Amino acid sequence: MLETNNITKKYLTKVAVDDISMKLEKGHIYAILGPNGSGKTTWMKMVAGLVKPTTGLIKIDGKDIGVDTRNEIAYMPTEPFMYEWMTIKDIGKYYQDFFKDFSMERYENLITDMDLNMTLKLKTLSSGMMAKLKIAATMARQAKVYLLDEPLNGIDLLARDQVMKAIVTYADEDNTLVISSHLVEELEMVADTAVFFSKAKLVGFYDLDNMRMEEGISVADKYREIYGKMSKEA
Amino acid sequence: MNFNSNAPIYLQVVDAIKLDIINGRLKAGDKLPSGRDLAVKYTINPNTAARVYQELERQEICFTKRGMGTFVTEDQVRIKLCKSQMAEETLTSFLLSLNDLGITKEEAIEMINEANDICIV
Predict the structure, then answer these.
(1) How far is A232 from chain B (nearest CA, A)?
(2) pLDDT in tens, A171-188
(3) Of A71, A74, A134, B18, which residue is most buried, by most CB within 10 angstroms?
């Protein structure tokens, strides 16, 4: 289980994450939704152990987040982080050296399933291919928690389908997946819980099947309800 | 598959599988994909896939053999019953929609007869 207890991150005068507490359980896929600048990426970076919260605690299975827990958390940032001169195969070796839980076999399967090829050089890849490669490298790890920051950004429909299938393939009862996206509809079928962030705060946490059953609305409807109301108030 | 995102996903997959059974795309006694394969096939949450099989079992459309997987029922009567239940649901929602348009059952029957003339070529 992943817990963030009253975590806040301040950069000088700006508050990027404001007192967010939540518990994320094993065996679930969470969609973190919210406009740009609502704190999604900062929250993920703190859980990944890359940014220290100003105040508050983060625990994974009761342990504090730190250098040790980086082995249990697979974080995929939005921004590109790989060297252009490498091939897809080099990326696999690079990850294998870095992460104990990386499975080369799983990586090869993911690469083949998404119609990529081990010999391709990174500088020749389209943005859709690059997004698929990033997912392959991340999902090839056998981590407890996966944090995927905007895995669907700027890629076409077919590439999005392949990325979502790759994610679903490796979700199981022992891991926790957290996916942030602006493309609310894309996460509708895959996530079981939606978490809404707004202006650095947590503003909603919904079990999706219950929401559909009780309110008869979709995640997109809920998104409009939450953020539409806010923009009218502003 | 195109889902209606306002309604529970697992019920929509349940209906899709029932339709496959009624149409004979899935035969009595056929083995169904594993929960994970079902999740990948429809790109849905694995928990949703597990819930699909729970629901199909509850409705006695499928059964699970320990360590072997999930199979389509071999009970033809149950499959026929499933067909009439689904037909009834479709009919009810059809009549409700026509009712909203102010069309009576008699008018609807007339419309169906005319529509058939167009369809059967």
Answers:
(1) 24
(2) 999 999 999 998 888 899
(3) A74
